[in-house]
């Protein structure tokens, strides 16, 4: 996300430097990194499910997602492999909109993707204008290699938390590790605190 820095007496920093978390470098590209092969999901077959802790399931088809209010967002994104890309342009539906009528006492979410990928997040990190179901990037349909037709976008955390090819958000009372978290990645993943691995 954008960050405002007050200039002090320690020299002048370029704006891009001030927006770069520790250990990161800028890239003009959008590298493609995935835990497995790219699943191809036709929009006619696409569905987003939100499952609550009591088993209640809420679902949206592609047409129903497109009928929800969308937002254009410009955010900085940060990959755990140390690249950052500034001012990326997306369109999607806020998770505040998706979850508005979902009754839950959950504090955590497990996001499930086509292809079997999972990642866990505190539910509060999906709310208050901080997360979207994104389906456009840079003015075009989201390409499959970047998570199309739709992915989760949680730009204030490392990008592995922004699950590609999202299909279900499972709401949970207790936290549990997802795919990379089971392999030693940090449960939360704040780039400003360099939470790359367990113990960071």
UniProtKB/TrEMBL annotation:
Organism (species): Intrasporangium oryzae NRRL B-24470
Pfam families named in the record: Oxidored_molyb
Protein name: Molybdopterin-binding protein
Residue runs in coiled coils: none
InterPro entries xrefs: OxRdtase_Mopterin-bd_dom, OxRdtase_Mopterin-bd_sf
Superkingdom in the source lineage: Bacteria
Region feature (Disordered): 1-34
Domain Oxidoreductase molybdopterin-binding: 36-180
């Amino acid at each position: 996300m954008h960050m405002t820095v007050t200039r002090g007496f320690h020299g002048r920093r370029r704006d891009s430097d001030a927006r770069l978390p520790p250990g990161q470098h800028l890239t003009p590209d959008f590298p493609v990194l995935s835990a497995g092969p790219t699943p191809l999901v036709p929009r006619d077959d696409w569905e987003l499910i939100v499952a609550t802790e009591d088993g209640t399931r809420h679902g949206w088809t592609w047409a129903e997602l497109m009928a929800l209010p969308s937002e254009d967002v410009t955010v900085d994104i940060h990959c755990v492999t140390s690249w950052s890309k500034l001012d990326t342009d997306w369109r999607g539906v806020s998770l505040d909109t998706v979850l508005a009528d979902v009754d839950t006492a959950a504090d955590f979410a497990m996001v499930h993707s086509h292809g079997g990928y999972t990642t866990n997040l505190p539910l509060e990190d999906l709310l208050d204008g901080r997360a979207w179901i994104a389906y456009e990037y840079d003015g075009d349909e989201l390409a499959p290699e970047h998570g199309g037709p739709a992915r989760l976008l949680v730009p204030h955390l490392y990008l592995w938390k922004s699950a590609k090819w999202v299909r279900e958000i499972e709401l949970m009372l207790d936290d549990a590790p997802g795919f990379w978290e089971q392999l030693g990645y940090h449960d939360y993943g704040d780039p400003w605190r360099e939470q790359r691995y367990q113990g960071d």
